[in-house]
Amino acid sequence: MKFVKNKKVITKLNPAQTKDWAAKFKVLSNESRLTIFQLLTAGPMNATELLNNISISQTLLSHHLKSLKSAGLIEGQKKGHFINYRLTAKNKFFPHDKTLSLDCCKIKFNDGSI
């Protein structure tokens, strides 16, 4: 559905999309999960590498990784004894223009940090 406001055509989202995107933003609203997501913008990391860069317990890290995976923001790929976590293919960070592209929208950061 589309409607016009101030000569701009605005597409109304369907309720399922809105609910899904709101859930993603809710997951990212947690400081630790946002930090983990930020670390993964640099490339894939395993749990040990993540723990070396964030001050939380391994148990809490596992909980946050599960939340991020459930929201479809990250994915894990087993490599030997480790699982490498990375942003899903539809979620990418472009350092050259400081833009985070989620499947729902793009977010531009002024200083390049999340």
Write up what this structure looks like.
There is one protein chain. With 114 residues, the protein is of the alpha+beta class. The protein is 37% helix and 25% strand. The chain is built from four helices and seven strands; from the N terminus they run E-E-H-H-H-H-E-E-E-E-E. A three-stranded antiparallel β-sheet has the order 5-6-7, with no helix packed on it. A two-stranded antiparallel ribbon has the order 1-2. The chain has a two-stranded antiparallel ribbon with strand order 3-4. Strand 5 and strand 6 form a beta hairpin. Helix 2 crosses helix 4.
Please sum up the structure shown.
The protein has 114 residues and is α+β, with helices and mostly antiparallel strands. It has 4 helices and 7 strands, in the order ββααααβββββ. The strands form 3 sheets. It has a 3-stranded antiparallel sheet, with no helix packed on it. It has a two-stranded antiparallel ribbon with strand order 1-2. Strands 3-4 form a two-stranded antiparallel sheet.
Beta-sheet strand percentage?
25-35%
SS element count, helices: 4
What profile does the largest beta sheet have? 3 strands, antiparallel
Give the low-pLDDT segments. none
The strands making up the biggest β-sheet line up spatially as: 5-6-7
Radius of gyration: 16 Å
For the terminal residues, how far apart are their CA atoms? 33 Å
The helical percent reads 25-40%
Order of helices and strands: EEHHHHEEEEE
Mean pLDDT: 85
Pairing-aware structural class of the strands and helices? alpha+beta
- Overall spatial form: globular
What's the number of extended β-strand segments?
7
